[in-house]
Design a protein that fits this description.
There is one protein chain. By secondary structure, this protein is an alpha/beta fold. The chain has one domain: Alpha-Beta Complex (Spore Coat Polysaccharide Biosynthesis Protein SpsA, Chain A). It contains six helices and ten strands. The strands form two sheets. It has an eight-stranded mixed β-sheet, sandwiched between helices. A two-stranded antiparallel ribbon has the order 3-4.
Length: 205
């Protein structure tokens, strides 16, 4: 349920001051099968000499606790690890598993393959949460469900039996956050689903 779009004048703008006192956790999904990469361990692939997962963990380093759903890997900072009851059973099951370890009143929900996510964007997402949550929309108007921020209680009360993450999150009261991207710069929502995506990210880094 969309409750309004928010357009930010600059992707480099600072988040509102209250964000500095807002406690949030990070929930990172890093357990997919990477079928379009031939089953490779996608979060461990590198861009600019840094793994995709570590790039995401650096962006959300302001989180009080970071929970990663997926197989354990070496990471640039300490995190809590967990798995779905049935490993690889999809993003909704991963969210449900990760929520068990979240303790902060807010959380950011992130994919583990966002090489150009930044702390500033994380701050803007958390600051944009009004009712249930806020998510980025790309320059084509598409919702970026795994680049979003939520009230933890709203996610816990959502339909975690749904078979699709989009259906689960669309039922919540969500603000859609549109950020401008400077010409020639990669957007923060850019992910790496294919080898071609990964190569493009490496060229842009």
């Amino acid at each position: 349920m969309v409750v309004g779009d928010v357009h930010i004048g600059s992707a480099r703008a600072s988040a509102p001051a209250w964000h500095d006192q807002c406690v949030y956790d990070a929930l990172v999904l890093a357990g997919g099968g990477a079928r379009r990469m031939g089953g490779a361990d996608k979060p461990s692939r590198t861009v600019g000499g840094v793994s995709l997962l570590d790039r995401v963990l650096t962006a959300c380093a302001g989180a009080a606790t970071t929970v990663v759903v997926g197989p354990q890997r070496d990471t640039c900072r300490p995190v809590l690890w967990t798995r779905e009851d049935l490993a690889g059973s999809g993003p909704v099951a991963a969210v449900a598993a990760g929520l068990e370890l979240v303790t902060a009143p807010h959380l950011v929900l992130l994919a583990g393959d966002l090489p150009f996510l930044t702390p500033a964007v994380i701050g803007q997402l958390v600051a944009a949460v009004d009712q249930d949550g806020a998510m980025l929309v790309d320059d084509g108007g598409r919702d970026q469900y795994l680049c979003s921020a939520w009230r933890t209680s709203a996610l816990r009360q959502s339909d975690l039996t749904s078979d699709r993450l989009a259906l689960l999150l669309k039922a919540l009261h969500t603000r859609r956050l549109a950020l401008p991207v400077r010409q020639g710069r990669p957007p923060p929502w850019m992910d790496c689903d294919t080898e071609a995506d990964l190569q493009q990210a490496r060229e842009l880094a």
